[in-house]
Amino acid sequence: MKTVATAFAALVFLSLATPPDARAQPPRRPFLFKDARGELAQARARGESEVVLVMAAMPGRNARLAAAVEGMGGRIGFRFDEVDYLRAWVPLDRVEELVAHPDVHSVDLSITGRSRSFGLADDEPELPGDVSVASAPGLRSAAGHRPAAPVPSPDTIWPPVLSDQPLRNRYSPLGDMRAIDWRERNPTWDGRGVTIAMIDMLPDMLLPELQTARGLAGEEVPKIAVYRNVLDPEIEDNGWWLEMDDMVEAAGGGFVYRDSAYTAPRDGVFRIAMFDEVRADTMGVYGSSLERDVNRDGNPEGSSRLFAVLWDEGAGEVWVDTDQDRDFTDETLMGDYAERPGFGVFGTDDPGTPVRESVGFGVQIDRERGRVALNLGIASHGTLVVGAVLASRGEAGRFEGVAPGARLAAVGEGGSAYGQTEATIVAASHPDVDVVYFEQSSNITRNYLLRDGRLVPSVIADRLVERYGASIFSPTTSPSSAPSTTS
Question: How far is CA 373 from CA 275, 319, 446, in A?
Answer without folding.
Answer: 9, 12, 31
